[in-house]
Amino acid sequence: MSDPILVLAHIDETSQINIGAREALGFAQNLSENTGRPVECGLIGADNSSATAEVTELGATKVYTIEDSLLARFSGDNMVSAAAHIVSSSGARIVLIGRHPSTLEFIPRLSRRIDGTCVMNVTRIETINEQYTEIEAAVYGGAARALYQIDSTSPVVVGLRPAAAEAPTPHPENSSDIVELNLELLADRVRVITEATADEGPRLENAEIVVSGGRGLQNAENFALVRELANLLKGMPGASRAIVDEYWAPPTEQIGLTGTTVAPALYVAAGISGASQHMAGCSNARLIVAINSDPDAPIFKYADVGIIDDCLAVLPELIELLR
Amino acid sequence: MHILVAAKQVLDPDGINSYALWGRLEVSEDGLGFNTGATVPQIINAYDEQAMEAALQIAEVQEGTRVTAVTVGSDTAPDVLKRCYAMGAENTIHVHDDEKQSGNPFRISQILATVAKNLGDVDLILCGRQGSDYDQGAVPAILSEDLGMPFITMASQINFDEQTQSLHVDVVTPNGPETLACNLPAVVAVSNEIGQPRYPSSRRMIQSRRNPPTVFRADELLPGPATEKMSIKLLTVPEVQGNCEIIEGVDPKEKAKHLLQILRERGDLNV
Ligand SMILES: Cc1cc2nc3c(=O)[nH]c(=O)nc-3n(C[C@H](O)[C@H](O)[C@H](O)COP(=O)(O)OP(=O)(O)OC[C@H]3O[C@@H](n4cnc5c(N)ncnc54)[C@H](O)[C@@H]3O)c2cc1C
Ligand SMILES: Nc1ncnc2c1ncn2[C@@H]1O[C@H](COP(=O)(O)O)[C@@H](O)[C@H]1O
Fold it and tell me: In this structure, is residue B104 part of a structural domain?
C-alpha cells in the first residue's frame, strides 16, 4: 500500500506557500518516513510557478497544479472542485492541509465532495492500516485531545493544528514530476461585494514579538498601554477574545484558537488569565512572560517568566524604561 | 422567510476550563466524557445562541419570517431548544441520537439535511461556526454540500437585500471585514462578532413547557443504514508543564527593571 500523502496548498498573490503549507509538508515528511509513502503536493491558485519549485525543495516528489484567475481566493466553489480533482488524480487517502483562515469552509466541504471524512486541529496521526486510521485532535480549546477512528477506505482530509510539525529543510537539488491539471470553472455562487485587503505592513502571525492584553486591563483606554509597549519593543499588539468581544481591540488582533496563532520569540501577556483557547494561539512562543495580579492565574502554568502585580502599574514602568 | 437554526448542546466551556486550569480535568471511565458530574452544566453552544440571535435580527426586519430550531442529541438536548424557544423560535425539533455519535459530523449533517428537506420550505440554515466541545466546525460546511447550497462562514452580520433578493453577509477575516452575497437557500455559520445574544424571555421560558419539541429518532431520518465512517474512541487530557520563574521586586518599577534585564540577558531578543 503506497498511495501518496497529499499536501494541498492555496497560492495567493504573494505566489508563495504559507506557513501552514510548510508545516503540512513537514508533517507529511515525518509520516512518509514512518510509512514509506511518497509525499505529493497539490497547488491551487492564480499563479503557481514559483510555488512549484518551493514545494519540490521541501520534499514533494510529484506536484499537481491547477492555475486559474478564478482561483485567486482560498474559498468558494472552485477551490473545492479543484482540490477534489487533485485528490482523485493522486489517489491519496491521506490529505493534509495546514493552518489557514479559510480551512473552516474548505476542509469539510472538500471531504464531503470526495465522499471522505475530515478532522480539524489535528496534532498527530497515530495509526494507518487498511481498515482504519487513528487521528488525534485538540478539542475543548486544547484542554483535551480526542482520538478519532476513521475508516481507511475513503480519503481523510486532515486539518493540522498550527505548529503540528516544523517546516522541512529545503533541498535545492530535489526534483519532482509536475502534473498540470485543467478544470472547467464556473462563477462562484458566493459573490464578493467588498473585499478585505491585507495591510502592506507586518503581519501578526509573523511577528517576532507580541504584547497582548486581556480583561485585566480594566477598560478600553488601557489597551493603549499594550500598543505602546508593543511599539517600543518593535513588536505587534494582540488581544484576548474577552476584550475583542468588548470592542477594546479589533478581531484582527485576537490571539487564540479562533483568532490568530502566533509563535514569536517573545510573547507578553498582560492581564490575561490563560484559558486553553487563548493559549492555543500562543503556547508555541519561545518565551512567554505573564503579568497578572492573581498568583493562581493559569497563565503562570504556561509562562516562563512571571510578574505577579497590577499590569496597569507594570506596563507604564516598562514603557518608561524603554522610552 | 423560513430560517432553520441548528443548535447543539455542549459542556459549558468555562466549567471545563476551570477544571483544566486546576489540573483536575479527568476523563470518565468510558473514555468519552469527563468526571465533572453536574458541576459543569450542559448548555447551548455559544455560537449557536448567536446564530439564534442572527435569525431573530433578520425576523425583525423581514416580515413573515419564521424561525425553527433543531438539535440532534440525547435526552438532555431539549434544554437547548427551550432556550431557543424562549429567545423567540416558533417551532423546535429534537432528533434523538446517541451521544456517542456526536463526534461524527457527517452523520449530524445527514440528519440535519433530512430535517431541512422534510420541512420543505427552508430558505436559510444558520449554524454556529463551531462547537466548543470538539472545536471541529465541520457540520455547517458539510451540510451545505449535502444540500447543494452555497455556504458562508464567520458571519458577523446578515441582511436580506430586498432589491436583489439575495443574502448579504459581513464576515470576519484576518485582513478585516468583508461583505459577501449569495442567493437563497443557503447555509451560513455565525461567529461571535455578531454580538451579544438577547436574553430569553421568562414568559416564553415558561411557555416552552407547553410547546414541547417535535421529536424524531435519528434512525428514522437517516437515509439507509448510517455509514459510520468516523467516531471518537478516546479522550485524553494533556499535561501542562508549569515552570515559571517569578520575578521578585519591591514595587512594579523594580519588577519591570528585572524583567528587562532578563530579556536582555537572553541575547536572542532585540530589546
Ligand atoms: C469556542 C471558544 C473559542 C474561544 N477562542 C478564544 C480565542 O481565540 N482567544 C481567546 O483569547 N479566548 C478565546 N476564548 C475565550 C477563553 O475561553 C477565555 O474566556 C478568554 O481568553 C479570557 O480572556 P481574558 O484572559 O482576557 O479574561 P479573564 O479570563 O477575565 O482574565 C482576566 C485576567 O486578568 C487578571 N487581572 C485582573 N486585573 C488585573 C490587573 N489589574 N493586573 C493584572 N492582571 C489582572 C485576572 O487575574 C485574570 O487572570 C474562546 C472560548 C470558546 C468557548
Ligand atoms: N448535534 C447537533 N445538533 C444541531 N446542530 C449541530 C449539531 N452538531 C453541530 N451542529 C451545528 O454545527 C455547528 C458546528 O458544529 P461542529 O461541526 O460540531 O463544530 C454548530 O455550531 C451547530 O450549529
Answer: yes
Residues of B in contact with A241 (CB under 8 A): 192
Atom of ligand 1 nearest to the CA of A239: 11
In angstroms, the CA B160 to CA B55 distance is 11
**Residues B100 and B203 reside in one and the same domain:** yes
State the CATH class of domain A5-180: alpha beta
- B102 lies within 8 A of chain A by CB: no
pTM score, whole prediction: 0.96
Q: Is the ipTM of this complex over 0.90?
A: yes
Sorted by where each begins, the domain ranges of chain A are 5-180, 204-322
pLDDT in tens, A16-62: 999 999 999 999 999 999 999 999 999 999 999 999 999 999 999 99
Residues A137-194 have pLDDT tens digits of: 999 999 999 999 999 999 999 999 999 999 999 999 999 999 999 999 999 999 999 9
Q: Does residue B136 line the site of ligand 2, with CB under 6 A?
A: yes
Last residue of a domain, one of B206, B221, B236: B221
Alpha helices, H only, chain A:
19-35, 49-57, 77-90, 103-113, 223-232, 241-245, 276-279, 299-302, 311-322
Contacts of range A115-118, beta carbons closer than 8 Å, 24 or more positions apart: A115/A154, A116/A154, A116/A155, A116/A156, A116/A157, A117/A150, A117/A151, A117/A154, A117/A155, A117/A156, A117/A157, A117/B106, A117/B229, A117/B230, A118/A156, A118/A157, A118/A158, A118/A159, A118/B105, A118/B138
Contact yes or no for B230 and A117 at CB 8 A: yes
Other CB atoms within a 10 A radius of the CB of residue B18 amount to 17
Contact A313 B138 (CB under 8 A): no
Structural domain span for residue B23: 2-221
